[in-house]
Write a structure and sequence with these properties.
With about 90 residues, this protein is mostly beta strands. About 10% of the residues lie in helices and about 20% in strands. About 5% of the residues are buried.
């Protein structure tokens, strides 16, 4: 360790969204417009990570869209290359 008081950061175990509503915890679809805190578990306790306005925003926060794969140029002469080949009817 670098210093005597250095803290050890533990990786997050889980992240979940919880509806802010009165009563017991219920399924997400029961109150979709309720604000939701995003909680992250560190293995010992749940810690607040962020707050979002509704269930749809929580889903976008927890599951962001995947980046598009990079496009590669098609080499000439490839069967998938554009153009009119003998196998295509024109």
């Amino acid at each position: 360790m670098e210093g005597e008081g250095a803290s050890v950061l533990r990786p997050a175990v889980a992240v979940e969204a919880v509806a802010l509503s009165a009563g017991r915890r219920r399924a997400a679809h029961v109150d979709p417009d309720a604000p939701r805190p995003i909680l992250g578990g560190d293995g010992y306790a749940w810690q607040p990570v962020a707050a979002v306005e509704n269930h749809a925003a929580a889903l976008r926060f927890l599951h962001p869209p995947l980046p598009a794969p990079p496009s590669r140029p098609v080499p000439p002469g490839s069967p998938t290359a554009p153009g009119t080949g003998r196998h295509r009817r024109t």
